[in-house]
Amino acid sequence: MKETVLDLLMFLFENYMEDEDRFPPQSERAGLQLKLLEAGFDHDEIEHAFAWLEGVLEQGSESGPERDQAFRVYSDEEQMMLDVDARGFLMQLEQIGVLSPSTRETVIERAMALDEDEIDVERLKWIVLLVLFAKPGEEQAFAWMEDLVFDDAAVLH
After folding, report:
1. How far is the C-alpha of 134 from the C-alpha of 139, rounded, in Å?
2. Which candidate, 22, 23, 3, places its Cα nearest to that of 11?
3. Cβ(116)–Cβ(4) under 8 Å?
4. What is the rounded distance in angstroms from the CA atom of residue 107 to the CA atom of residue 88?
5. CB-hemisphere CA count at 13 Å for 56?
6. Cβ proximity of 100 and 90 under 8 Å
7. Burial of 82 (0-12, 13-18, 19+ CB in 10 A)
8. For residue 63, what are the CA distances in angstroms to 56, 69, 73, 157?
9. What is the pTM (predicted TM-score) of this model?
């Protein structure tokens, strides 16, 4: 089975970042890259994963004004990548306060940056988790998503 960049990001989080409070700094990435190569990941996938993480950090520092009445219209490309269930999941997370409009946009942008054909809800949960991990001030939302990702019995209401 061919591993994707998201698979690598999930592996990286579960094995090296879960007990951290931030993404690994540049100084630690060489050692992590070596560990990922030893775990069987491709060099190009590793580079893409670290570029993806940098994109999260860049997006996390850009924050526009929040609008309570924002209405999101998905482009054709976004609709192809994020099916109805995934888009509904994002809307639900926004409605219950886990995602703000700007965080939702970061999640969508980072999902599109993965260059996958389609992202289902289970994989989208990981993208949301990683984005919330990188955003300062989102600790409560991150903890909620972490419980959802790691506890299959959790149900959204």
Report:
1. 9
2. 3
3. yes
4. 14
5. 23
6. no
7. buried
8. 12, 17, 19, 28
9. 0.83
- 43 alpha carbon, distance to own chain's centre: 21
| Distance separating alpha carbons of residues 56 and 1, to the nearest angstrom | 27
What is the Cα–Cα distance from 84 to 42, expressed in whole angstroms? 32
What DSSP element (H or E) covers 9? helix 5-12
Question: Which letter does DSSP use for residue 78 in this model?
Answer: H
Query: 32 exposed, middle or buried (CB, 10 Å; 0-12, 13-18, 19+)?
Result: middle
> Could you report the per-residue pLDDT of 55-91, keeping only the tens digit for each?
888 875 555 555 556 678 999 999 999 999 999 999 9
Tokens of 2: 């061919």
99 strand-pairing partners? none
Classify the C-alpha dihedral 64-68-73-78 as positive or negative: positive
Side chain identity at residue 82, one-letter code:
L
Nearest partner of 98 among 154, 66, 63, 143, judged by Cα: 143
Please give the single-letter amino acid code of residue 35: K
d(CA 149, CA 136): 20
Q: For the segment 94-135, what is each residue's pLDDT rounded down to a tens digit?
A: 999 999 998 999 999 999 999 888 999 999 999 999 999 888
Name the one residue in this structure whose structure tokens are 């970042």.
17
